[in-house]
Structures are given as C-alpha cells and as structure tokens.
Amino acid sequence: MTSLTALALLACLMLFLLPKALSFGDTWNLKANPIPGVEVVLRDGQTVRGDLSRTWSGDYTVLQADGRVVVFGKDGFTGMTARPQPDRGFPWRSFAPAILLLWAFVLYAGWSAMQRRRQTLLSASL
Question: How far apart are CA 70 and CA 60, in angstroms?
Fold first, then answer.
C-alpha cells in the first residue's frame, strides 16, 4: 500500500471519527462542568431542576438539590431552560479530542510527505 493510499484511508477514517471526537469532548466538558440551575420538562410532564450533566453513554443527568439524580435520554425531554450564567470559561474539553485527532492527521500527512520526498530524492540521485 502506498503512502498516498494510506493517507487517503486515514483521511476517510478521520472524517468518520471527527463527529465522535466532538461528541466525546462535549460529554467530557459537561461531566467536568455541569450546567447549574437547569429546568427540564420530561416527556411525562414532570419538571426537574438541578445541575445538568451527561453520562458517557450519552444520557443526560440532572442532580437535584436534595441529592437525587434523574437520568433521561436524548429524546426523554420536551423542553430545557437554563438561567443566565456568569462566564464559565472556554470549553476546551469540548474541542480537545477533535484537535488532537486533526493534529495527529496533519503530523502523519507531513511525515508521509517527507518520506515521499526523501524517496524521490534517493531514486533521483541513483
């Protein structure tokens, strides 16, 4: 397999993995920095208030003031409101996995280009 073929396959793999990396980063950010003061209306009409977070499986969790945790899926609510929050800082965890994935791809592409250039120079010198 040539290095261009490997690079093309890696590019396709990267395009497939990029949304997964962004989702992973978003979950990581919500686990590290839950959104306080969220009010969620569940499908059954029940309203829960508390700190919104997410599990690694993709479900949402609301930690209520009394310590109870309510877990619901992506389709388990009809509405969600949050009061305005002070600046929570840049959500770097949301983007870190995707940036690392892109960085690895660029690094491999550069290495691959250097290898092709070196091979071209070696074969031209013979």
Answer: 8
Determine contact, residues 41/57, Cβ cutoff 8 Å. Answer: no
**To which residue do tokens 């409101």 refer?**
81
- Read off the pLDDT of residues 43-57 as tens digits, 9 standing for 90 and up: 999 999 999 999 999
- Please report, in angstroms and rounded to a whole number, the separation of the first and last CA atoms in the chain: 24
Hey, how many other C-beta atoms are within 10 angstroms of the C-beta on 75?
7
Q: Which DSSP string do the residues of 94-118 spell out, in sequence order? A: HHHHHHHHHHHHHHHHHHHHHHHHH
Residue whose pair of structure tokens reads 């074969």 in the numeric block? 123
Spacing of C-alpha 116 from chain mean position: 33
Render pLDDT for 76-96 as a digit per residue (tens, 0 to 9). 888 888 877 777 778 889 999
What span, in angstroms and rounded, lies between the C-alpha atoms of 16 and 27?
A: 18
The whole-model pTM stands at 0.76
